[in-house]
Amino acid sequence: AYERLQRESSREIARARRKSETLVQELQAQAEQIEALQAQLLSQGDARLTDRLRAKLQRQTEQFGAERDAMQRTLDKHKKEIILLNSELSRAKREEERLRRSVRQTEAELKMAQRRAAASQPGR
Description:
Layout: H1 2-120
């Protein structure tokens, strides 16, 4: 009777072990499926977020596009003005230098004329 009880309990234990191993395998498979589904959900969430951000960017671009274009035209206009002013400044500097040379030459000629005049005056 003891041996029979021992055999039956051994069989029950073996069945329980097989059953628990099967359940462990099923749980592992389910855990892997859950992880895969979570990763898929996260990627879909990222895709949805990306789509929302793209739509927002498009709305912002449309909303502020005209303003940006106007600012760009104004900027271009100011750049042209700066180029013209720099060109005018450059011409003015060249003219100033030309006038300075002319003044120096005229002063030199005046000194020469004064020396000649002084040399030609008899009383000095």
